[in-house]
Q: What sequence folds into this?
């Protein structure tokens, strides 16, 4: 069986990690060898979220690529709770906040690396911001989340990257993704 790599993309707090773990648990119950390629953001020694810069995103991309490749070598199905698309969009967001010539060069490099790497996903699922959830004003990054969501949608469209948008409520995301995946002949029912 050819290993399958599934990317879940979207802004912060859209349910990517929760969905990834739920999908893996359900796939394992069906006898599939599956695991989550954990996002590497929390291990970044540089700034993240609203304090991110392009250097942080290059570090995150390199680390994330390593994690995904190791998982894909050991699992039949790898679920990635972040994609190279996310990484590029956070880098572009940082560039737009600080558009220096050095940052332009680094963004150009990040663009080429992440665009090429996005071709390694067999499926890409986009999780939108759930507008029904009320976020408190003290939560870091509410405006950034909206800006990243727009950047991700633009990146997918402009780069002509195939994806499936999940429009289910937060509690049904993993079930909707799983119903799509179970149509793949390489995944056990």
A:
């Amino acid at each position: 069986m050819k290993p399958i790599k599934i990317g879940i993309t979207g802004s912060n707090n859209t349910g990517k990690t929760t969905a990834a773990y739920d999908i893996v648990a359900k796939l394992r119950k069906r006898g599939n060898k599956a695991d989550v390629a954990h996002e590497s953001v929390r291990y970044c020694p540089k700034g993240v979220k609203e304090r991110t810069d392009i250097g942080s995103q290059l570090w995150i991309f390199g680390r994330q690529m390593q994690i995904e490749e190791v998982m894909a070598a050991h699992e039949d199905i790898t679920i990635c709770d972040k994609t190279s698309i996310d990484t590029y969009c956070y880098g572009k967001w940082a560039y737009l906040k600080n558009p220096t010539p050095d940052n332009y060069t680094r963004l150009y490099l990040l663009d080429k690396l992440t665009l090429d790497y996005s071709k390694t996903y067999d499926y890409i699922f986009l999780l939108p911001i759930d507008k029904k959830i009320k976020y408190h004003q003290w939560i870091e990054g509410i405006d950034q989340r909206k800006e990243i969501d727009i950047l991700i949608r633009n990146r997918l469209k402009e780069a002509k990257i195939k994806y499936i948008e999940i429009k289910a409520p937060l509690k049904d995301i993993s079930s909707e993704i799983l119903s799509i995946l179970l149509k793949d002949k390489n995944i056990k029912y």
About this structure: The helical segments are 16-29, 54-74, 84-97, 101-117, 142-158, 173-181.
